[in-house]
Amino acid sequence: MGNFKPIPGNIICDALKDEKTIIMACNVRITKGILRGIFKAAKKSDAAVMFELAKSECNLDGGYTGFKPKDFSEQCRETASEVGFDIWALHADHLTMKKGTPEEIEEMKKLIDALVKADYTSFAIDGSFLFNLEGNTVEEELSKNIDVTAEIAKYIEEKMQGKEFGLEVEVGEIGKKNESGMVLTSPEEAVVFIKELNKRNVFPNLIAIANGSTHGNIYDEKGKQAEQISINIEQTIAVGEALKKEVSNTRIAQHGITGTPRELIKKKFPVEFILKGNVGTFWQNIFYEVLKTMKPELYEEITEWTLENFREKAEKSGCKSDEEIIGKYIKYASGAKDETGKLLFFDKICSLEKNIEKALETRAYSEALIFFESFHAVGSAEKVRQHLKRIKG
Questions:
Q1: Residue 281: exposed, middle, or buried by beta-carbon count in 10 A (0-12, 13-18, 19+)?
Q2: Which of 26, 115, 279, 351 could anchor a disulfide with 120, C-beta 3.0 to 4.6 Å?
Q3: What are the pLDDT digits (tens) for 152-196?
Q4: Residue 2 domain-assigned?
Q5: The domain that contains 166 carries what CATH number?
Q6: DSSP string covering 78-93, please?
Q7: For the chain, what is the domain count?
Q8: What's the pLDDT at 178?
Q9: pLDDT at residue 175, rounded to an integer
């Protein structure tokens, strides 16, 4: 029987960083059927893949998905073994700190303890909110982010006890806007950030930057879902070129891919610089599209709950239609609890009929095949296997 446990994220990144391929990282908030479909597509395409959930999605309290780190890890590991696929990593996405206070850092360390215990093999530290607007230099502007990122990275290293792991860091707040439009990470910011971390013996495989993308579904001024075509390719190339020249081994992690036409990804994404591509809300959308037809009473129950609980907040934030409110806030349903702390929908979702689970698996399988093709990832798993043989001698 083969070994189908998650492998260190740095092994995958090191093997593929110069192979002009993008590793798909899937935020599978609802695993029913979808997780198996993606794993099967990875095996069919022989494509390296990552599975991840952010701190907001999966934490010690269950996040908004209802999953704790151990739960998500077990589901991924069991599915990998059932499908029989070996080249994958378990990634903790967006370990976000917005204040950088000692209390927040201690809470993050508790979560990391749980992630390490649950056999995560890759971690994304997000200190992008810790930006000093009063700094006179780039170093001063990024100093708090650098300090906190380095401290957490060293803590992960300590807890991993010599085991290898992947490391992603973040220098630009994804989707941030000002009066001029989207705030974009400059090449200087990315290079300074990585160089300062390197000085502290922190060597990230990946850096997430602000390049015009936005997390989640995108909507137009009428509240209709729209394509995501705001990713600034020129700025991404400029940052990628600077990183490759100045720090050599760190590549870009592209966040916010849901809604981006896959033909655009295949033709336009600079694969020599983008090594990891996050796909999250897309899989959630698939779940609810299938549910809407095959289990309409549950779909209606969840959408009514979403509208009832988030309409006021959504309209204050500028949502223009029920479609937009549902598209942006339905993610909170799977982990929603009543006043007694009981999960409202989680068990209903997990116990869906076999025919619905199969439909979800089939849909996720076909869509993942297209993503792997768009990401130039077909055959990438074998490149990782060959790399593993080389480093093991």
A1: buried
A2: 115
A3: 999 999 999 999 999 999 997 644 555 555 689 999 999 999 999
A4: no
A5: 3.20.20.70
A6: HHHHHHT---EEEEEE
A7: 2
A8: 55
A9: 47
pLDDT digits 0-9 by tens, 193-210: 999 999 999 999 999 999
What is the rounded distance in angstroms from the CA atom of residue 7 to the CA atom of residue 5?
Answer: 6
Helix axes 9-16, 380-392, angle to 10 degrees: 110
Tokens standing for residue 62: 């269950």
* 157 C-beta neighbours (distance < 10 Å), count: 16
User: At residue 353, what are phi and psi to the nearest 5 degrees?
Assistant: -60, 155
Residues of the chain falling short of pLDDT 50: 174-175
| Residue 302 and residue 344 in contact, taking contact as beta carbons nearer than 8 Å | no
Give dist(CA 164, CA 170) in Å, integer: 20
Residue 270 in any domain: the answer is: yes
Q: How far apart are CA 338 and CA 306, in angstroms?
A: 13
Query: Cβ distance 292 to 323 under 8 Å?
Result: no
Do 206 and 251 form a contact (C-beta atoms < 8 A)? yes
Token digits for 178? 């000002």
Host domain of residue 327 = 296-351
d(CA 56, CA 381): 29
Cα gap 178→182, rounded to integer Å: 6
Same domain, 283 and 300: no
Same domain, 188 and 203: yes
Residue 347 CA to residue 334 CA, distance in Å, equals 9
300 with 311, same domain?
Answer: yes
